[in-house]
Known about the structure:
mainly alpha; 3-stranded mixed β-sheet; 11 helices
Amino acid sequence: xxxxxxxxxxxxxxxxxxxxxxxxxxxxxxxxxxxxxxxxxxxxxxxxxxxxxxxxxxxxxxxxxxxxxxxxxxxxxxxxxxxxxxxxxxxxxxxxxxxxxxxxxxxxxxxxxxxxxxxxxxxxxxxxxxxxxxxxxxxxxxxxxxxxxxxxxxxxxxxxxxxxxxxxxxxxxxxxxxxxxxxxxxxxxxxxxxxxxxxxxxxxxxxxxxxxxxxxxxxxxxxxxxxxxxxxxxxxxxxxxxxxxxx
Length: 247
């Protein structure tokens, strides 16, 4: 049947019931349901949209590296409009010694460090879920602001990797996932031509998908949803058959 991370007797039972009630060929049903399952798996795998994913990446990057724009609303942190104006002026002039002195002598800003841009800071700040959980001094690459944006865009290009594990399977099964979900990160093994047990095995090749699945129950939820839909379709077919027979 359709296999991958898990095997489900109830899913396979629903597939057989669906096949019998709709009078379809087993190979046809397996391919049809594998395609629908791959689509649902991609839908349930975060992020919900490419925009949402890119925004999340940008937020995480800027939890570590401060942009100069951050200081345009500095008053909310200093509670001192004169100091806020002074900081903004020094940022515009890129006056590192004076700014560092101001930050070190401020209880609200003493966690900011003016330093060169260092990509490894972001990697060190990420937790087991790949998200930034940052409790260290904030890095303010005053003279390397362009590097922050380039770095953020390079990370945003990775958005959709986990989704692509299933989107790639969907594409191989004849579906048409969005381009950002079509990176070749899924694997299909088609065993429907076998004489004995027929199956399609789908594998998400993204290493961190397993942790996402543990946390969000993506695979069980997708399979349970397809199972319900197959049973419902089988029941509708049965009702139609009864009605046609006058029962």
